[in-house]
Amino acid sequence: MTQSKIKLNAAEDVQEFVNAASKCDFDIDIYYNRFLIDAKSILGILSMDLTKVLTVDCHGENKEFERTLQKFAVA
């Protein structure tokens, strides 16, 4: 399992992230504080507070999805 910190600033960012996550054949969770959402759920992510830095847990590997994570990564 790998963990990354990301920031999604707009609905277009959420859509791009969910599209990339949906192509993966493993579970991906996204959360902040105690809110845990399936990263393949666009409505779930849009219901989160997007002003916060989000944590992503990947339970597998996919090079294309890793590039998407790097695009939205925060230091």
Please provide a written account of the structure:
The structure is a single chain. This protein is of the alpha+beta class. Helix content is 36%, strand content 25%. It contains three helices and four strands. It has helices at 11-22, 42-46, 63-72, and strands at 2-6, 28-32, 35-38, 54-58. It has a four-stranded antiparallel beta sheet, covered by helices on one side. Helix 1 runs antiparallel to helix 3. The radius of gyration is 11 Å and the shape is globular. 19% of the residues are buried. This is HPr family phosphocarrier protein. InterPro entries: HPr-like (IPR000032), HPr-like_sf (IPR035895). Pfam families: PTS-HPr (PF00381).
In short:
The protein has 75 residues and is an alpha+beta fold. 36% of the residues lie in helices and 25% in strands. The chain has helices at 11-22, 42-46, 63-72; strands spanning 2-6, 28-32, 35-38, 54-58.
Topology:
Elements: E1 2-6, H1 11-22, E2 28-32, E3 35-38, H2 42-46, E4 54-58, H3 63-72
Antiparallel strand pairs: 1-4, 2-3, 2-4
Helix pairs in contact: 1-3
